[in-house]
Amino acid sequence: MSRKPNVLYILSDDQGAWAMRCAGNSEIQTPNLDRLASRGVLMENFFCVSPVCSPARASLMTGNIPSAHGVQDWLRGGNIDSEKFSHINSDYVSYSEEGRPIEYLAGQLTYTDVLTENGYTCALSGKWHLGDSVNPQHGFKYWYSLGRGGCNYYHADMVENGEIKVEDGKYVTDIITDKALDFMDELTSRPEPFYLSVHYTAPHSPWGADEHPKDLIDLYDTCPFKSVPDVPDHPDATTGATYGTPKRHEKLRGYFAAITAMDRNIGRLLDSLEEKGIAEDTVIIFNGDNGMSMGHHGVWGKGNATFPLNMYDTSVRVPFIISYPKKLLSDVKSDALVSGYDFFPTFLDVLELDKSMTQRLPGRSFLGALTGEKESRDGEVVIYDEYGPVRMIRTKEYKYIHRIGYGKCELYDLKADPGEEHDLIDSPEHENVVVELRRRLFKWFNKYVNPDIDASKENVLGGGQLCRPGIYANRKDVFVWH
C-alpha cells in the first residue's frame, strides 16, 4: 500500500474571504497565498458554521454544528488552570476569568482522531481555543499552543511541555512558524506520514502600529483602502464609533499588515516543504475560522460585532485553498457552496480514508469540486449557520436569517442584491420564499440539533462562554454566560 500524503493545515483567525489578493483584493499583499492558490483550488464560497472562533473551530474538527458539539460562543474560560498558573504576572496576560480547564470536545470524534488511528503523527503549533490549552488532545503528539484564545502580538502566552511562558518582544506569528518548522524537521525524520496544524492568531486584533512589524505598518500607511466600504457605523454595532475618525485607517492598516506578516510566514512553511523535497507529497490547506467585516455594512468585527448578532456574508464567508496537484486541480476557482461541516468528510476523501463514520454528520464531501468531476450536490446544496438564537439558511439565490427571542428576521435576494443592503422580509412578493426557506431551516436543524444543548435555547449573546451548556446546568457557579 502506498504511503499516505503528509498534511499541512494552516488556519487564520478573523480573516474574511475578501482579504486576499488571489480573491480579488488588489490592495493587500499576499504573494504566498496567491502562490498556493495557483497550485490548488480556491473555494470562493466556503462558509464557517458559526461567525465566531471557538464554535467554528469545533465544527471543523468534529463535523458537527454548535448545537450538537456544545461549543456555542467563543470560550471566555476553561482554557487553563488559573491556580496552577497564578505565577504568570504580566501587563499583557490575565487569567482572571479562567478557573479550571475544560476539554470541550472530550468524548467527541475529531478528524485528528481518525488520522491518528490511520497512522498519522499529528502536531499543533498555535491557537487551540477549544478548552484545556495546556494538555494535548485528540491524537496530537506534538503540542505548542496559546494559553488563551488571543494575545498581544509581542506578548503571547505560549504553552510548551505543560508550562506557560510569556514571550515578550517576540512577534507571535513568527513564533508559531518557528515552532512549526521545528516540528516539521522532527516529523519528516519519522517513517509515518504527518499532519501539522499551524493556527495563527492573525489577523485578529489588536491592530495598533506597535503590534506589527514596522515595515508592514509603513507598507499600508498610505493605502486608501478602497477595497473596503467606507460607510456609516451600523446602528446595531457593539464595537464603538469608527466612521469618520482616524480609527478606520488605523484598524485597516493593522489588519492588512497582520495578514501580510502571516503570508510571509506561510512562505517560510511552503519553502521548507520544497527544500525537503516533500511539497508534492503534501496536502496543503489554508482556511479561516470565521469571517470578518472591517467596515463592511458599517460593522467592525464578526457575528458578535452587532447586537442582534449578524450573519452577513462578510462574517460567515472565509478563505479556503487546498493544494495537492497529484490528485486535485491546480489554479482553479470554484464557486460551489460549501461549509465547515463539509470539511471532515471531504478531508478524509482527499486522503482516501474510510469516511463511513461521517454519514451521521450534516456535511458531505465536495471532492468533486476539487477534482473537476461532476458535482452532484450542485442545485441542492444550501448553507446553514447558527450563533445561539440566530440561524441562517443560504442558497445561491437567497439568504434567510431567523432570530429567536430578539431581533427581526431578514431576507436578501443575493442575485439582485449581493451586498445584502435591502432586507426583503416585509416584502409581500417574497412571502412564499420566506415560508419555504423557514420550513427548510427548521427541518434541517431539527434533524441535526442535540436537544440537550440546543443553542437557540441558551443565553448566547456573543460575550463568551465559560462552560459547556448542559454539562453543569445545575451548577450556577460555573454555568455562566456573558
Which descriptors apply to this entry?
482 residues, alpha/beta, Alkaline Phosphatase, subunit A, eleven-stranded mixed beta sheet, four-stranded antiparallel beta sheet, 19% strand, globular, disordered C terminus
Layout of SSEs?
Layout: E1 6-12, H1 31-38, E2 41-47, H2 53-62, H3 66-69, H4 111-117, E3 121-126, E4 140-146, E5 155-160, E6 163-168, H5 172-187, E7 194-199, H6 214-219, H7 247-275, E8 282-288, E9 293-294, E10 300-301, H8 313-316, E11 317-318, E12 320-323, E13 332-339, H9 343-350, H10 367-371, E14 383-387, E15 390-394, E16 398-403, E17 410-413, H11 431-448
Parallel strand pairs: 1-7, 1-8, 2-13, 3-4, 3-7
Antiparallel strand pairs: 2-11, 2-12, 4-5, 5-6, 8-12, 9-10, 14-15, 15-16, 16-17
Tell me what you see in this structure.
This protein is of the alpha/beta class and 482 residues long. It has a single domain (6-378), classed as Alkaline Phosphatase, subunit A (3-Layer(aba) Sandwich), CATH 3.40.720.10. The protein is 24% helix and 19% strand. It has eleven helices and 17 strands. It has helices spanning 31-38, 53-62, 66-69, 111-117, 172-187, 214-219, 247-275, 313-316, 343-350, 367-371, 431-448, and strands at residues 6-12, 41-47, 121-126, 140-146, 155-160, 163-168, 194-199, 282-288, 293-294, 300-301, 317-318, 320-323, 332-339, 383-387, 390-394, 398-403, 410-413. The strands form three sheets. Strands 1, 2, 3, 4, 5, 6, 7, 8, 11, 12 and 13 form an eleven-stranded mixed beta sheet that branches. A four-stranded antiparallel beta sheet has the order 14-15-16-17, with helices on one face. A hairpin with a 2-residue loop joins β5 (155-160) and β6. The model is unreliable at 471-482 (pLDDT under 50).
